[in-house]
Amino acid sequence: MDWTRYRFRSLWALPASPARVLEALGRAEDYPRWWPQVREVDRVDDTTGVVRVRSVLPYDLTFTVRGVRNDPAAGVLEIALSGDLDGWARWTVTAHGRGALARYDQEVRVDKPLLRRFAVPGRPLFRLNHRLMMRAGRRGLAAYLEAV
Fold it and tell me: In this structure, how many other beta carbons lie within 10 angstroms of the beta carbon of residue 25?
């Protein structure tokens, strides 16, 4: 097993239409407004940006994201990641009751040297760190959608 590889899935039930959720998720430069752990998003061009995140554990991850799929009809946004994380992430947004369900899938390899060094003993903490970040993101996006 490669201890530096991670696969994540999160499901967010949100109080807005799938179109509104997808629109908000497509504006990555706004993430720091509603997702506390997304500290910076610097747009490079129309499809590329540099992102810095930090959750509970005392380390930052910085990576470049490049949009590879933006399909509003299918409710899909997908990016490629490179830098401290290497891999991909995808949002799939569908109708769910009176709102939307945003499914987040991510497959990455950790390239940050510190995290690679602690890959085996730190794995449970790294997974918990990610879970806490995703929980805060869901709460932040739900509040953001209700406010606008």
Answer: 19
